[in-house]
Amino acid sequence: MPLTTSGLAAPCGSVNRQGRRYAVLVICSMSLFMTYVDSSALNVALPTIHRDLHAGVSDLQWVADGYLLVLASLLTLSGSIGDRFGRRRAFTTGLVVFTLGSALCSAAPTVGALVVFRMAQALGGCLLVPASLSIVRQVFTDPAERARALGVWGAAFGLGIAAGPVVGGALVSGVGWRSVFWVNVPIGLVVWQLARRTVPESRAARARGFDPAGQLLAIVVLGSITYGLIEGPAAGWGSAAIVGTFCAGGVGLVVLLAVERRRVEPLLETHFFRSPPFSASIAIAVASFLALSGFLFVNTLYLQDVRGNSALVAGTLILPATGAIIVCALVAGRLTGRFGARVPLALGGVCIAAGGALLLDLDPHTAVTRLVATYAVLGCGFGLVNPPITHTAVSGMPPERAGVAAAIASTARQIGNVLGVAVMGSMVSATTLGSSHLVGAAADRFTTATHLAWAVVVACGGVCTLTALVCIGRRGMRVAARVYRDEPHVVAGTPAPVQPVASPVTD
Prior knowledge:
The protein is mainly α and 507 residues long. It has 3 domains: 187 residues, Up-down Bundle (Growth Hormone, Chain: A), CATH 1.20.1250.20; 51 residues; 238 residues, MFS general substrate transporter like domains (Growth Hormone, Chain: A, Up-down Bundle). It is 79% helix and 1% strand. It has a two-stranded antiparallel sheet. A hairpin with a 2-residue loop joins strand 1 and strand 2. It is globular and about 65 Å long. The N terminus and C terminus are likely disordered.
C-alpha cells in the first residue's frame, strides 16, 4: 500500500514539534550553563584582577558580591516579570542585558567600573534563570518528559560550576582575565538569535502581583548588611558609618516583616516560616551557600597568592570539589526519594563540617594531596545538601504555594552566597596581597587569617546537620500540615481549602 502525504503529515508534525521542544531545552540549558560558567570562572580570575587593577581584598569582594547582591535582591521579582509580560520576552531581554554587561566588564578600566558593570550583568542573569526554568516547564507538558528535561536543565548548572574553574583558568593564563567576560558575547548573541526563532511565548494564567515596598526594603536590608560586612575591617567596626549601616539594615528588616504581614501577595511570605521544614530549608540554604561561596573566594586567593599557582592550576585543583558536587547531587536525589530529605541534608552537613575542620591548620605548604582530598569532602557536602533544599521547602505546602516557596529557597541560596563572600572575605581582608605571590611572614599571616574562615565553614556544616535532624521529619511535616490546613489561602481571589504536597519523610 503506497504511503500518502496525509498519512505522513501527523508523524512528521509530531517529530517537528518534538525537535522544537528539544531545541528549546538546549537553548535554555546553554543560557544557564553560560551564567554559571561565568560566575565560577570569575573566582580564579580574582587574583589577576587584583594585580592588574590594583584592587584590595574588599574590592575583590565587591566584584564577586555586586553580581550576587543584585541576584539575591531581584530573583523573586524577575520570575514574576516573566509570568506577567512573557517568558520569551524576559528570557531574550535577559540574554541581551547579560551579554552587554559581559562586554562592559571585559573593557572595565577600573575596579569600580567593573563592580558597576557586574551589577548590570546580574540584571540579565536575574531574568535568565527563572525565565529559562519556566519555559522548560511550559514546553514539556508530559510529566515524564518534563522530569527528564528538568534533569538536563539542572545538569547545565552542575556542568557550569564544574567547567568554570578550568575554563576560567585556561582563559586567564592564556589570554587574560578580561577574556572571562568577552567570551560570553558571541555565545550570548548566538543563543539570543536562536531563542527569538525557536522559543514560544507564554505567560502565566494569573501572574503574581508586584510588591514594590517589599522589594525596596529587601534591597535596603541586603545592601546595608553587605556593605557593613565588607567595609567594616577598613572603616572600623565601631565607626559611625558601619554602625549606622548595620542599624539601617536592622530597622529595614523590622519594617520589611511588618509590611509583608499586611500584603495579600507579599514578596516574603512570612507565615511560611511557621512550617518547620520550610524554615529548616531556608536556614540550610543560607548556611551551606555561605560556606560554599566563602570557601571558593578565600581558597582561590590562597592557591594563587600564597602558593603561587597559575589560574589554570588553581582551577584544576578545585575540580575534585566541583566534580564531587555533581556526583553527590545525583546521590542526594536517590537518597531523598528513598529516605526523605533529612538523610542527605544531615550527611551533607557532616561533610561540610569535616572539610572545614581539615583546613583549620592550613599553612602555605600544606600537601597538595591533602588539599585535593579536602576539596572532595567539601564537594560531597555541598552536592548532598543542595538538591534537597527545594524539596524540603515545599514539603507540606499546598501545590499552589509550592512555586513561591521554591523561589524563596532559591533567593536564600543567593543570600548565602552574598554573605559568604562578605563574611569570610572580611576575615582575610586585614592581610595585604602583593603584586606577586606572598612569601614568608606575609604568607603565614594570610593562612593564619583563613583559619577563622574555615571555622565558619565548620559551624555552617553543623547548622545544616542539626537543623535537618531537629526540624525535618514526621513531626515537622505534621506541624506544616496544620499550618496550611488552618490558614486558608487565596488563589485567583477565592479562598480555598488546600492539600499539602506529599513528601517522603523519616524520623
